[in-house]
UniProtKB/TrEMBL annotation:
<comment type="similarity">
    <text>Belongs to the 'phage' integrase family.</text>
</comment>
<dbReference type="Pfam" id="PF13495">
    <property type="entry name" value="Phage_int_SAM_4"/>
</dbReference>
<dbReference type="InterPro" id="IPR044068">
    <property type="entry name" value="CB"/>
</dbReference>
<dbReference type="InterPro" id="IPR013762">
    <property type="entry name" value="Integrase-like_cat_sf"/>
</dbReference>
<protein>
    <submittedName>
        <fullName>Site-specific integrase</fullName>
    </submittedName>
</protein>
<dbReference type="InterPro" id="IPR011010">
    <property type="entry name" value="DNA_brk_join_enz"/>
</dbReference>
<feature type="domain" description="Core-binding (CB)">
    <location>
        <begin position="1"/>
        <end position="81"/>
    </location>
</feature>
<dbReference type="InterPro" id="IPR050090">
    <property type="entry name" value="Tyrosine_recombinase_XerCD"/>
</dbReference>
<keyword id="KW-0233">DNA recombination</keyword>
<feature type="domain" description="Tyr recombinase">
    <location>
        <begin position="99"/>
        <end position="272"/>
    </location>
</feature>
<dbReference type="InterPro" id="IPR002104">
    <property type="entry name" value="Integrase_catalytic"/>
</dbReference>
<keyword id="KW-0614">Plasmid</keyword>
<dbReference type="InterPro" id="IPR004107">
    <property type="entry name" value="Integrase_SAM-like_N"/>
</dbReference>
<keyword id="KW-0229">DNA integration</keyword>
<keyword id="KW-0238">DNA-binding</keyword>
<dbReference type="Pfam" id="PF00589">
    <property type="entry name" value="Phage_integrase"/>
</dbReference>
<dbReference type="InterPro" id="IPR010998">
    <property type="entry name" value="Integrase_recombinase_N"/>
</dbReference>
């Protein structure tokens, strides 16, 4: 391990970045250095710009993927190497396209979950929908996270390393109680194939794709689609945006408010102002004037 990598790792640890973020940043910096065959300490704005052009034009990465590379290099040069650059100019972040996710209807959720043939996979995908969890949060649920007395689920260290509580629906509790006797796990609610390890995100993704094929749904379905459906269905049922923000664990209310653009049964059911205008009094035709000879 080079001294620069060690220093960057220490900088990330003292700032309490998640292990996933740390490994992702190290990978991005390694790819950058390997592309030029030199240490990042020897590279500057010209090479950074060339790297961003390479990622965009040659590797054709999505704006979200490029944003990860930009964040990694910003951390390296701003925090670890302490460069006094104008980072908005040297390392501009790509503007992501604003696309609305395709959301499953309640009947499509029922149809999809009905095609999940493995009881453990059915339980975890049902949990993703019932509690609006990210798949990374669902796979790391522990048995102790289920509080049937208060009817809540504790999500430990979700995105942004934040804890939160979400609702435990009675229907989900019944599903988990039917599933539980089949595993007898000691720690993880959804144990994986390796002893002492939770189920992997890849295993959940594979189960999702298999159920999608069986369901015959034309809409794309991923574990994250169930989280989107959770938010939109709550919004359409009348739940306020602030409550949904807390349940989803969003940092910004603006992120949650984007679901207003998708909740068609709420937005499109709003009365047009034309319908609210008072009806005009009909104008009666004037009697014809008598003819004069």
């Amino acid at each position: 391990m080079t001294a620069l990598r060690q220093r960057m790792l220490e900088d990330m640890r003292v700032r309490n970045l998640s292990p996933h973020t740390q490994s992702s940043y190290i990978l991005q910096v390694s790819l950058f250095a390997r592309h030029f065959g030199r240490s990042p300490e020897e590279l500057g704005p010209d090479e950074i710009r060339a790297w961003q052009v390479h990622l965009t034009d040659e590797r054709k990465l999505s704006p979200a993927s490029i944003a990860v590379a930009v964040s990694a290099l910003r951390f390296l040069y701003k925090v670890t190497l302490r460069k006094a650059w104008t980072f908005e100019e040297v390392l501009p972040a790509p503007k992501p396209p604003h696309k609305l996710p395709v959301v499953l209807s309640p009947l499509e959720v029922v149809r999809f979950l009905g095609c999940v043939d493995n009881i453990k996979h059915h339980a975890i995908l049902t949990t993703c929908y019932a509690a609006g969890l990210r798949v990374s949060e669902a796979v790391h649920l522990k048995i102790s996270a289920i509080d049937s007395r208060r009817m809540v689920i504790r999500v430990d260290q979700g995105k942004g390393r934040k804890d939160r509580y979400v609702m435990l629906s009675s229907a989900l509790l019944e599903t988990l109680r039917s599933y539980w006797p089949t595993v007898h796990a000691r720690e993880w609610l959804f144990p994986g194939d390796l002893p002492g390890q939770p189920i992997t995100r890849d295993a959940v993704g594979n189960a999702c794709r298999r159920a999608h094929r069986l369901s015959g749904l034309t809409k794309p379905v991923t574990p994250h689609s169930l989280r989107h459906a959770f938010a939109v269905h709550l919004l359409e049922a009348g739940t306020d945006v602030r409550t949904i923000q807390l349940l989803l664990g969003h940092r910004s209310l603006a992120t949650t408010a984007q679901y207003l653009r998708i909740a068609t049964s709420t937005v499109c059911a709003t009365a047009s102002p034309l319908d609210l205008l008072p009806r005009p009094i009909p104008i009666e035709p004037k009697p014809a004037a008598p003819a004069h000879f």
